[in-house]
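Sample intake — Rrf2 family transcriptional regulator
Collected from: Neorhizobium petrolearium
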Amino acid sequence: MRGDSRLSRMLHVLIHLERGGGPMTSEMIGRMLNTNPVVVRRTMAGLRERGYVQSEKGHGGGWTLARSLDKITLLDVYEALDRPELFCLVPSSDHAECLVEIAVNDALDKTRREAEELLLSRFATIRLSQIADDFETKMAALAR
């Protein structure tokens, strides 16, 4: 199973939107993420539907924040992206009748669900403004 980088990429975009001082077009974001503008629009659509970003068409248009970063959590963005898979562990189904396989799959599934609950509860406590502040601290340290 391939990794899903949409969450980290959209967090990256949202922080750039906050710092950018103006709208960013899908083309600009696509260049920044090394992806197609159509992929950007499709991915940003969930964020727009939730009210985190807005877009304007035409000259001078583009994507802007509709809500400040201190009002958006990691969980908000994760849910706006339709809850991508957090873990790529999948149960084996080679021997569906084998009691050992059933016990292993049950243990892995239970543990994965517990880990997801813990991770998502932590996501709910992290505001994007905290990530942006961490970036600013790192930039200030580099400038010294």
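Post-analysis note: The domain at 6-143 is CATH 1.10.10.10 (Arc Repressor Mutant, subunit A).
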